[in-house]
Amino acid sequence: MIKKNNAQEKAIQTISGQLILVACPGAGKTTTLLRRINYMITKRNINPLNILMITFTKAAADEMNKRYARMFGKNPGVTFCTIHSFCLAITKKFSLKKLSVLSELEKYTFFRDKIRYNASIADKDAFISDIILDISILKNNMLSVSEYSPNCTVNKDLFQGLYTDYEDYKEKKGKMDYDDILLIARDILLNNNIALQWLRERYQYIQVDEYQDTNYLQRDIIYQIAGKTGNLAVVGDDDQSIYAFRGARPEIMLNFTKDFPNAALINMSTNYRSLKNIIHDADLLIKQNQVRFAKDFIGFREADGCVKYINYKDNTSQVDTIVKKIQKMIEKGEDPNDIAILYRINKESMPFAEKFIAKKMQFQCNEKLMSKYDHWMFQDILAYHEVATGNDVDGVFFEKY
What we know:
single chain; alpha/beta; Rossmann fold; Arc Repressor Mutant, subunit A; DNA_helicase_UvrD/REP; ATP binding; hydrolase; DNA binding
């Protein structure tokens, strides 16, 4: 159980108006948000139906809902959701167009078919990922295709052509992608005063988690519903903003008190999770960033902890050394469930997975492991093989081609 402190208690009891909560890792942020919700209901007699809790991922929303039930009993009607699921509900209720959501597979297949015979694109998978990301950034910054310069290694004319074809495809199919959901919701809030007033009346108390990863489109939606004088609490850590490549803008969090000059700012700077040396080294590193909220980390636990910096000559030696170290730790009695490997991008998990499998070591991975059998080239070869041998019973080949 995390020990209560003054910053947490102040955050819990600051209900009216705007609040920005700057919470370091291990500060008890989630517990504080849930206790704040319960305080609103039990001490301020606020209707649970008027409380909206927006999280970054569906998993986080589900977990917060479950934790609330474990801490305080059954959820009495508080809305826990992501910004996308919230906006999808808005579009379903207020949009005149009834659109279905385009799946990620259908989106990928569309672009794959568009560039299939373009010999100038060597790595088509990487190109498709870049195109999809660029389109997402364009939309989340609310730019037109003519205003946007793609980050991917493609000339602007090709990008604009693919973008136009993609938008036409969705229009014909009656589809919208996840970024369209936000754009449509924002358009409703700007142009449908009845919808806006209904939402403001319903959601009078809003909390937003992981605010450092908000983009301009999401900010506009949140600000529209909260209004200039609404009860809006945002929480995050500007030091942990890692999604700029997806369009997240940490300056949105940094500028919150400029947008709302009367907002309360509370620092939750006590780390209850990490040991002192880890906190010390992390503090030294992040202070090199000059554009951040001024803060000092405080360690609660007494033990020192150990931090090592190791450079490897290549990825193979890195994987071999780490797996051998884990083997020795387990042989000495360490619980495998207490050991974790963090990596920057998903594909870096594969060398570790292959090594664990070869050594018959059990492991689990939170993301789907990438496989050569998922690659578009393998899928194409398989489709040709099945139609050539008369095994294309599901008509997959003709769906593809």
